[in-house]
Amino acid sequence: MAFDPLQDVLYMADRRTDAIEVYDTNTWDLLGSLPVGEDIGAEFSPVPNFLSTSADARLLFVTTGSGVRMLENPFAVPEPSSIILLAILVTYALVPIGNRLQMMSNSL
């Protein structure tokens, strides 16, 4: 199992379904699951699965019978969008005043 470093989420390897289950740690609701794509071990295997996230939680790493599998994490916090940056740029404008430019804020 592994905790998401950026949000209140727990990832758990489920050997019965060969998937990573994703839980909200505030409510313990199952948010979904992510198929690993191969056998991650027998249900009662004495060898535990290793599960980890990248620092930004965009990647999950899980051990399987063939080694370590790297999966893209659709439950990770999305990257900031360029649309947000565009909205910030549109909110402020450079206006010529005499021989200099002044930054002016648009009223919302």
Automatic annotation (TrEMBL):
Keywords: Membrane, Transmembrane, Transmembrane helix. The chain crosses the membrane at residues 80-98. The keyword Transmembrane applies. SUPFAM superfamilies: YVTN repeat-like/Quinoprotein amine dehydrogenase (SSF50969). This is Uncharacterized protein.
